[in-house]
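User: Before I run my own analysis I want an independent prediction to cross-check against. Here's the chain; please return only the structure tokens and, at the end, one sentence I can use as a sanity check.
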Amino acid sequence: MSLPRRNSMEKRRHVLAKCLEGYIDYGLLSDFRQEISYSEYGLGLENLCERLLESDCRLPKAILDDIAEAARLMQLPAERWDFVLTLEE
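Assistant: Structure tokens:
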């Protein structure tokens, strides 16, 4: 499932969280959802990326592309997220 291109940042984050269901640990997903519920989108995405790397979580390319697109749209520095692109299953 690809992220909607014309929706708000909040909607995009919730869709991304939904895409991650079944791929990542419940605790990690819960932490991500909590951070975005506080409108901490950038911090939530950065923390998600770090924890995905720490847990060596493998994800489909489509989800990794969605993470990359969201990070670029938020203009996050590449060094804070681009390492997750190495986690393709």
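Sanity check: The mean pLDDT is 87.
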